[in-house]
Amino acid sequence: MKRALISVYDKEGIVEFALELNKLGWEIISTGGTSKILKEAGIDVLEVEEVTNFPEILDGRVKTLNPYIHGGLLYRRDDKNHVKTVEKIGINPIDMVVNNLYPFEETIKKPNVSHEEIIENIDIGGPSMIRAAAKNYEYVTVIVDPKDYIKVLEELENNGETSLSTRQYLARKVFNYTAYYDTLISNYFNHIEEVEFPEKLTLAYKGRKELRYGENPHQKAAFYEETGKVEGTVAGATQLHGKELSFNNINDANGALEILKEFQDPTVVAVKHTNPCGIGSGETLLQAYEKAYESDKISIFGGIIAANRQVDEDVARRINEIFVEIVMAPFFTEKALEILSEKKNIRILQIPDIMNNDYRTMDIKKVLGGILVQERDNIILKEELKIVTDRKPTEKEIEDLLFGWNAVKNIKSNAVVLVKDKGTIGIGMGEVNRVWAVKNAISRSEEKVKGSVLASDGFFPFKDSVEALAKAGVTAIIQPGGSLRDEESIIEANKNGITMIFTGIRHFKH
After folding, report:
1. Would you give the distance in Å from CA 138 to the centre of its chain?
2. Residue 263, class by beta-carbon neighbours within 10 Å (0-12 exposed, 13-18 middle, 19+ buried)?
3. Contacts 24+ apart (CB under 8 A), 399-406
4. Paired residues of 368 in beta bridges
5. CA distance 357 to 352
6. In Å, how far are 52, 128, 245 from 311, measured between CA atoms?
7. Which of 91, 152, 406, 510 is the most exposed place for a label (fewest CB within 10 A)?
8. pLDDT range class, residue 156, cuts 50, 70, 90
9. 280 vs 139: CA distance, rounded Å
10. In sequence order, which residues have a C-beta less than 8 Å from that of residue 8 and are 6 or more positions away?
């Protein structure tokens, strides 16, 4: 008679599965709550204590940790010495394990949960048992996912046993499962010990969503969400309309969200290829949208729009005048949703907590042979603004300079933005030298450049950028300072009546 050990926290479908096993002649061993519900369903169950000849102890901390369990799982059926050993001791084979673990992930998400409760939800016996079964997958079937019950039953009904390929598939799922589970525990202890960079780093992501392709059609791709950190993100969005998100959609949408989170006033960010083509703030969202749109009427076509206020009918009508891939906002009025949904291919994402900005998460970049890990750039200004020129900025210039400083923080370096009336009018980004970024921003702003202000994510290594800005009619500059040639830039600014502020902090983004 084949024997299955069933002990599950998630009891979805377990009674139906056990009933079918019973019909196929399997003997069932079980523990605790699982044993109780199986017996209530009329299924004959052999208690674990009857197998181990040892009672469950320490409030359930020890029940399956026993040679009669692990010996029955781990011995090789084709090894004469293994067979001889278990027969001599009286260990019977266990041919299947059905188990899922204590809900550690759900426990750490509970509000005001105590450390003691979290510790008690670290499963010990379960991981040991399923790892043992998975190691011996040549002979033992192990199931941790209720979705696999049907697959296993079909093979048992048709062939009398599971295939080796199925057992290997199930074993692979076990080791993925336990690795994820252990990573959550490790991350919890790193958190309470305030360890940002542990000696060995493991990452926990879940919810694989296969994408049609990656950045290009010949690249395979998938999307995983970060465990417990989806508030205010694309992963936590509700899609209200449109086709499935692509790899580039998700990446670009994230770029828009990172910028949007820097602004508290009604703001709209328009993004193309992770970089903004327009950022605008206003007293109303419609004003903000107009500023973002006017920044670059060409590049916004086919782009992504993120708003930090409810999208109403007026904003929706303006958006619908052009083609955009995605619109993201905390909420949409019923009429706005109706208007936007007129276009079949637009993706509409609702993110109620769109301004949630968890700076405790780490910024991770994959490189060949490893990963780079750093704190997120969670500071706008470290110290008071330092005015380094003869002319002091006006209140209006200060307002636009600070708007530009918030904007440039999340633009790919080398980055500069030209701003007027809390709206970008020209953006230069991703250049290999700063004066090219400056000249591109001036070119893109056209005649609007006169009377605008500029924010630069890094210092000016030479005075050439200031010369170009003065010639274009820019009146104020905000930049980190710190160049060996700062004095040359200051002299050039004074010569042209430009006010310049040093922040003492840079915001490179690569």
Report:
1. 36
2. buried
3. 400/452, 400/453, 400/476, 401/453, 401/455, 401/476, 401/477, 401/478, 401/501, 402/478, 403/263, 403/281, 404/453, 404/454, 404/455, 404/478, 405/380, 405/381, 405/455, 405/478, 405/503, 406/262, 406/263, 406/380
4. none
5. 13
6. 64, 52, 20
7. 510
8. very high
9. 64
10. 14, 34, 98, 99, 100
Q: What is the token pair recorded at 499? A: 């006010």
Classify 483 as helix, strand or coil: coil
Residue 177 has pLDDT above 90, yes or no: yes
Helices (H), 111-246: 115-120, 125-135, 149-159, 164-192
Q: Which tokens go with 283?
A: 């007293």
- For residues 220 and 211, give the distance between their C-alpha atoms in angstroms, rounded to a whole number: 8
Segment 305-346, tens digit of pLDDT = 999 999 999 999 999 999 999 999 999 999 999 999 999 999
The tokens for 76 are 């090789």
Write phi, then psi, for 100 (nearest 5 degrees). -135, 160
pLDDT digit string, tens, across residues 459-500: 999 999 999 999 999 999 999 999 999 999 999 999 999 999
Provide the annotated active-site residues: 135, 273
State the DSSP H helix or E strand holding residue 347, giving kind and residue range, or none if neither. Answer: strand 347-350
User: What is the C-alpha to C-alpha distance for residues 161 and 87, in angstroms, rounded to an integer?
Assistant: 23
Pairing between β-strand 267-272 and β-strand 416-419 as defined by DSSP bridges: unpaired
Cα(350)–Cα(324) distance, integer angstroms? 16
Tokens coding 279: 């950022």
- In whole angstroms, what is the distance from residue 480 CA to residue 458 CA? 6
CB 424 within 8 A of CB 407: yes
